């Protein structure tokens, strides 16, 4: 199906271009979202009549989006979720959850502006693309953790908080400490025995 793009569509074309797409993509996405018109003769004539106005409106929206982008790009939001020791979530984090977290940070966006190839199912730092305008996008980081404390640890290390690994590390540290104390005790005992040996030999010689 041939369509006229009413705005830039990634990997497809710029505003005003006539491109061919699959009918389903046009009917289910481009046309309902008002991102395109069917490339009929009347629509082409209508677009040319309104081109200057549409381009002016697009530039205005782009300018506004760029102002917001300066504030939101690189934003880090914390999302608290329950998860197992391996870091697997009991559920998931969707584009709606990201949009709500960004809104709580003071920037209102629509969930449709959050681009995700799949929902988030693990703890950790996840970079997510937010499209503010067809020509302006930013990246925000979703810090998915079980608690604010774990989120802080993840933010500092850049890695997911793994309770099992932490426990193993703590156990290993304790075992190492016990081994060091045992080695120190043995060394002290050996030193004391060596110090007593000459005195015993001297007492035997006097006898």
Automatic annotation (TrEMBL):
<keyword id="KW-0687">Ribonucleoprotein</keyword>
<comment type="function">
    <text>Binds to the 23S rRNA.</text>
</comment>
<dbReference type="Pfam" id="PF01281">
    <property type="entry name" value="Ribosomal_L9_N"/>
</dbReference>
<dbReference type="GO" id="GO:1990904">
    <property type="term" value="C:ribonucleoprotein complex"/>
</dbReference>
<dbReference type="Pfam" id="PF03948">
    <property type="entry name" value="Ribosomal_L9_C"/>
</dbReference>
<feature type="compositionally biased region" description="Low complexity">
    <location>
        <begin position="172"/>
        <end position="182"/>
    </location>
</feature>
<keyword id="KW-0694">RNA-binding</keyword>
<feature type="coiled-coil region">
    <location>
        <begin position="37"/>
        <end position="64"/>
    </location>
</feature>
<dbReference type="InterPro" id="IPR020069">
    <property type="entry name" value="Ribosomal_bL9_C"/>
</dbReference>
<dbReference type="InterPro" id="IPR036935">
    <property type="entry name" value="Ribosomal_bL9_N_sf"/>
</dbReference>
<keyword id="KW-0699">rRNA-binding</keyword>
<dbReference type="GO" id="GO:0006412">
    <property type="term" value="P:translation"/>
</dbReference>
<keyword id="KW-0689">Ribosomal protein</keyword>
<dbReference type="GO" id="GO:0019843">
    <property type="term" value="F:rRNA binding"/>
</dbReference>
<dbReference type="InterPro" id="IPR036791">
    <property type="entry name" value="Ribosomal_bL9_C_sf"/>
</dbReference>
<dbReference type="GO" id="GO:0003735">
    <property type="term" value="F:structural constituent of ribosome"/>
</dbReference>
<feature type="region of interest" description="Disordered">
    <location>
        <begin position="172"/>
        <end position="207"/>
    </location>
</feature>
<dbReference type="InterPro" id="IPR000244">
    <property type="entry name" value="Ribosomal_bL9"/>
</dbReference>
<dbReference type="GO" id="GO:0005840">
    <property type="term" value="C:ribosome"/>
</dbReference>
<keyword id="KW-0175">Coiled coil</keyword>
<feature type="domain" description="Ribosomal protein L9">
    <location>
        <begin position="13"/>
        <end position="40"/>
    </location>
</feature>
<protein>
    <recommendedName>
        <fullName>Large ribosomal subunit protein bL9</fullName>
    </recommendedName>
</protein>
<dbReference type="InterPro" id="IPR020070">
    <property type="entry name" value="Ribosomal_bL9_N"/>
</dbReference>
<dbReference type="InterPro" id="IPR020594">
    <property type="entry name" value="Ribosomal_bL9_bac/chp"/>
</dbReference>
<comment type="similarity">
    <text>Belongs to the bacterial ribosomal protein bL9 family.</text>
</comment>
<dbReference type="InterPro" id="IPR009027">
    <property type="entry name" value="Ribosomal_bL9/RNase_H1_N"/>
</dbReference>
């Amino acid at each position: 199906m041939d369509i006229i793009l009413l705005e830039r569509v990634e990997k497809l074309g710029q505003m005003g271009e006539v491109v061919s797409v699959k009918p389903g993509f046009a009917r289910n996405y481009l046309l309902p979202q008002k991102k395109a018109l069917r490339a009929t003769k009347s629509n082409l004539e209508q677009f040319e009549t309104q081109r200057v106005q549409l381009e002016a409106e697009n530039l205005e929206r782009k300018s506004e989006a760029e102002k917001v982008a300066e504030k939101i790009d690189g934003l880090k939001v914390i999302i608290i979720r329950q998860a197992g020791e391996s870091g697997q979530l009991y559920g998931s984090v969707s584009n709606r959850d990201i949009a709500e977290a960004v809104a709580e940070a003071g920037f209102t966006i629509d969930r449709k502006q959050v681009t995700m190839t799949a929902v988030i199912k693990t703890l950790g730092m996840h970079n997510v693309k937010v499209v503010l305008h067809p020509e302006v996008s930013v990246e925000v980081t979703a810090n998915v953790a079980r608690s604010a404390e774990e989120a802080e640890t993840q933010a500092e290390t850049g890695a997911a908080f793994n309770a099992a690994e932490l426990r193993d590390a703590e156990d290993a540290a304790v075992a190492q400490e016990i081994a060091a104390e045992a080695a120190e005790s043995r060394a002290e005992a050996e030193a004391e025995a060596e110090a007593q040996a000459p005195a015993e030999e001297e007492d035997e010689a006097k006898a």
